[in-house]
Fold these 3 entries.
Entry 1:
Amino acid sequence: MIVLLLGAPGAGKGTHAARIADHTGLPHVSSGELLRGAVERKTELGVKAKEHMDAGSLVPDEFMLAWIEELLDDSVYESGIILDGFPRTVPQAEGLDKLLAAKGLATDLVLLLDITQDAAAERLLSRVTCGKCGAIHNLAQKPMEVPGICDACGGELETRADDVRETIEKRFVEFRKQTEPMIEYYRSRGNFETINTNRAVDAVRQDIRDLLDRVSAATS
Ligand SMILES: [Zn+2]
């Protein structure tokens, strides 16, 4: 089963992708996490990606497509994949469709996590990530028992460099310009669902589970 998770910055893609991975047993790939990893290791992709991320803009389509082509050849993803953060533009979506079609595959579910910009911005500004276990915590929803320390594993919490107000605004501008047309592309092609994520996280999780079970039953 191939699942694409779409949504504005702060819509909850990372959080829900991890839960979908738990629920379905499928591997989760976050393009943002992979890019940040490449930046830290200063790989060729990382060095180029960093210039764009520092400017709050998107990494060019051809980089992203070359990366996803390599990724899809890995046998780890034979049974399926949950992609979060890719594609982000119409050319990326068209490129992905072609890559999948060449393998006799297609997306089974394109899920848009929908949220207002104000709610998303508030969420991003109170978001921290654990440097050890990778858990994403929202301090506005649930403060940690010891400030700065992950409740789950005791690791140190980090704020992402691009979760500051100025960069968040730029990411929303990019989202409206590049990603909203792509959402329309998928909306017109079927297998497209929307879930409002501006609600209690457990209610959202349950709705996503019900949806996945329906899609999974229909595709198996
Ligand atoms: Zn942790």
Entry 2:
Amino acid sequence: MSIIEIENLEKTFKVLNRHEGLKGAVKDLFSHDYKYIKAVDKISMKINAGEIVGYLGPNGAGKSTTIKMMTGVLDPTSGHIKVNGNIPYKNRRINAQNIGVVFGQRTQLWWSLPVIESFKILKMIYQINDKTYKDNLELFDSLVKVSSLYSKPVRQMSLGQRTLCDILAAFLHDPKVIFLDEPTIGLDVSIKSKIRMLIKELNARKNTTVILTTHDMGDVEALCQRAVIIDKGKIIFDDQFESLKSMFGSYRTLKVSVDDMSEKNINDTIRIIESAFNQTKALTVNRSEDWIEIIVDQDKTALTDVLSFVINNIHVSDVKIEEVEAESIIRKIYEGGRTV
Ligand SMILES: Nc1ncnc2c1ncn2[C@@H]1O[C@H](COP(=O)(O)OP(=O)(O)OP(=O)(O)O)[C@@H](O)[C@H]1O
Ligand SMILES: [Mg+2]
């Protein structure tokens, strides 16, 4: 049964075309010069109860706007949306009972209060009965051993501890759907894997539907059977994560740093690498902060060939090999259709 049904959903923002400077700011006060931004452009999808769906896409793709419509914060411009049978923006209160929300960089908890006091407030707000409340606290502790944290005020917590508590708070009232917006952002490997395990366990035990927004492919890999990718407001992929994986499975990222990071030297280095391999179209080279990033298609050329070329022809100071990041895959899917 579908717990979320979205049909031709659209959200257009009307924003002022702003002018520069003080004169411009005054002009803006009286201006009717608007432009329209289609943040979500006629998307449709159905999500079944108990699914964990990765909702992915580059910055500005429309993910948060979709989530805001699902949580009832924003009204759609047109189209239909139902969460657990309710129209979220019309029945905000009922919808709030059915959902839990976690934003990776913002806490929903009371900053100065010990966590347990926040939990007690949530118990009252959501009218959680004593048994459910007690059972859930026991379950949380059996999964992630957090009870020692409960007396700590949120402001004294590390980001990882706080995120853990935020996730527990969102699950406390047994919501049917949980929205997680970048829950593992900025966290180290060990707490990331703890959080992934927690989400997976709670989903399995309570059959909670999870919509997960992330830029971390590791999250998707660990949690999601299905991935939905949105770009420029349109859904460009909706399928099993496995099929997405098979599309980029052969790709690896080789990161190289050089001593001379001047614009000229970086551009020269990129050109040398590209021209050595451009016949096979096996790689793309970009600058990424302090690294030169080479995305290699191992079906076309061996990673070791690229590595040895780089080491023999360029003065490198450091090298690392990584899986391809979600952003690069999404860019490739968008640029090249589904033929990555
Ligand atoms: N309240 C608003 N008013 C005007 N434009 C907005 C508003 N909210 C979002 N937008 C625009 O809508 C588009 C989609 O934004 P959205 O926040 O949904 O992206 P996102 O996929 O969540 O990106 P990110 O990965 O950076 O969080 C962007 O172009 C953004 O600038
Ligand atoms: Mg967002």
Entry 3:
Amino acid sequence: MVDDVTSVEIRLLLEGLHDVYGYDFRDYAESSIRRRLTHWLNESPFDTFSQAQSGLLRERALFESLLRGITVNVTEMFRDPLFFKAVREQVVPFLRTYPFVKIWLAGCSTGEEAYSMAILLNEEGLAGRFRMYATDINETVLQQAAEGVLSISEMQRFTRNYQASGGKASFSDYYTARYERAILFGELRKDIVFAPHNLAVDAEFGEMNMVLCRNVMIYFKTPLKERCLRLFDSSLLPGGFLCLGLKESLERRVQGERYEELQPAMRIYRKRYG
Ligand SMILES: C[S@@+](CC[C@H](N)C(=O)[O-])C[C@H]1O[C@@H](n2cnc3c(N)ncnc32)[C@H](O)[C@@H]1O
């Protein structure tokens, strides 16, 4: 009984958040969103979602704290190094033939994936020839992303990832260590635009050569996943590359008609011409 009431409260709350703020979490996978909302509630002064609802709908700051709790922001430099190796070896040769490359990286979290791509493209001779739009629903992580500061304790792991991804320099060339912090070189940021974008309600980005959306749709139900795939499709130019997370894939039918598998194990697809 208690569980049922909580489900109703969550459903009403998500409806309200959508109506008031335009943030749509109604199509997020239920178990994951419930777990995260409950964690937020336990840390809040409220006992139930009904009690919290009025404050959440009327006070933007309280809603922002919930938003920070809802999104899963785990990320790392050169996450899944073999994915980056495949991009280096199998996608970059195509990108090199374009005069300019436009990339949309959706769900960039604190920026590590965008900085990893920028390092890779610079090493592969594309410096100054690309623009990357790195977007996320959560403005707090976007601010962190723009700062480009990592924790020094992560550097060993990130260095291993970088090497396994086929990195051509020394990872330490890309940051300066200061006490507990590793500050990424500002130069890496000059071709990246960090901006808010909500995959559940916002429009596509035009004329992209590459779209990356990794480890974001795993939290979505099918209708929202399908909305994302339509957005990516209308953003991509023919011949453009779509990169998903290793636990995600294109539906077979869509894939056969509109995309070819460039590197199936690494979830890299290429949009067909015509
Ligand atoms: C687990 S992180 C993935 C980060 C990075 N792509 C990676 O693979 O390391 C998921 C990100 O998706 C973002 N996100 C969740 N829902 C979103 C939405 N509706 N629109 C845009 N970004 C969203 C979260 O804020 C979070 O930063």
